[in-house]
């Protein structure tokens, strides 16, 4: 393929695939070389992203499929649900799409998670490609094969592990991303520091202003390192038997905030930002890290424009929502904690301690 781009491979045996990171990838037909050609290519996107990048992508795909069609979903986390997922199936069936049909997820994590789940289910599995257009999706959700929809009782409760054939992260798409969404994406970038790479945490601290100003080199490096860490984790533990849980740092608190407030009130990245502050505080109360680590992460989350205190909700509904977390075993809450800077693990935690942390961070 011509043109400057960076690439790395996620090593999963017969399910291995490449992640390409570069400018203008969506419009470059050669970025799709080697992917299956078929009668139908179905672009799943939403009503915000379709007018921005839909046509561009359709042109790049025109030579690959006799028919390139779009399924345009309503935008937002509130629509990551059964009725919206069904719209994808309705379209595939109405157009007599067969099992060679390729689905293309064009958008952020919501579109990516739903398209992946639809691909896993339609005719028991059709190929799909991730085309992430948010920072969050480029550093996290497009990689690793977790696909899902939400349930009112809990985030991502209905889903499947199903890997894409390729990930194309087009850096140019980040130019149109609203600032609040950029901050949300930074939450998942920051996450990789305390759990896996203290040097990367230092790099983020030093380069946060450049990232927030969208300097292309800084963004490319943050995306590359984030994907490397995620590929390293998922390559060892695709289905979260153990190690992969570290990618859930901040998510037990974060998912509870999202569910209790109502999906879409706080963005996923905002809830994870606040959740990481609570999770490092929990780590400190367990005697694993010191106050300096708590202050360091809190300061970075704050600088990234993310909340560090809980929204005005009572603790009980949050605890209830946390009991639904996928890491809970035999009714026992389990949290990802930082064990030392750059290293994380999973611990069963007493509910009393969790309540103390919630109280310390109440609005
Ligand atoms: N599968 C995983 O491993 C994984 C990892 C992290 C998060 N997630 C999931 O991802 C979702 C969050 O993803 P997200 O933060 O990308 O949110 P999102 O998909 O809702 O996208 C954020 C907003 O940005 C808009 N948008 C997307 N690309 C744009 C662009 N280039 N220019 C302008 N606007 C654009 C979207 O329409 C939306 O309004 C959550 O549902 C979360 O649970 C999944
Ligand atoms: O890829 C993973 O594994 C993650 O945990 C990444 C998270 O950022 C992401 O939000 C994921 O969807 C959460 O997974 P869940 O299993 O807690 O729903
Ligand atoms: Zn996440």
How would you describe this structure in keywords?
363 residues; binds ligand LNCXM5UN; binds nicotinamide-adenine-dinucleotide; Dehydroquinate synthase-like, alpha domain; three-stranded mixed β-sheet; 11 strands; Rossmann fold; alpha/beta; four-stranded parallel β-sheet; binds zinc ion
Textual characterization of the structure:
The protein is an alpha/beta fold and 363 residues long. It folds into two domains: 5-176, Rossmann fold; 179-360, Up-down Bundle (Dehydroquinate synthase-like, alpha domain). The protein has twelve helices and eleven strands. The chain has helices at residues 49-61, 82-94, 109-121, 135-141, 179-196, 198-212, 216-236, 251-261, 268-285, 291-303, 315-323, 351-360; strands at 5-10, 17-22, 38-46, 65-73, 102-107, 128-132, 146-151, 154-161, 166-170, 334-340, 343-348. The strands form four sheets. A four-stranded parallel β-sheet has the order 4-3-5-6, sandwiched between helices. Strands 1-2-9 form a three-stranded mixed β-sheet, with helices on one face. The longest helix has 21 residues, at 216-236. Bound molecules: nicotinamide-adenine-dinucleotide, the ligand O=C(O)C(=O)C[C@@H](O)[C@H](O)[C@H](O)COP(=O)(O)O and zinc ion (ZN). The ligand O=C(O)C(=O)C[C@@H](O)[C@H](O)[C@H](O)COP(=O)(O)O binds next to β8. Residues 185-328 form the 3-dehydroquinate synthase C-terminal domain. GO terms for molecular function: 3-dehydroquinate synthase activity; metal ion binding; nucleotide binding. Keywords: Amino-acid biosynthesis, Aromatic amino acid biosynthesis, Cobalt, Cytoplasm, Lyase, Metal-binding, NAD, Nucleotide-binding, Zinc. Belongs to the sugar phosphate cyclases superfamily. Dehydroquinate synthase family.
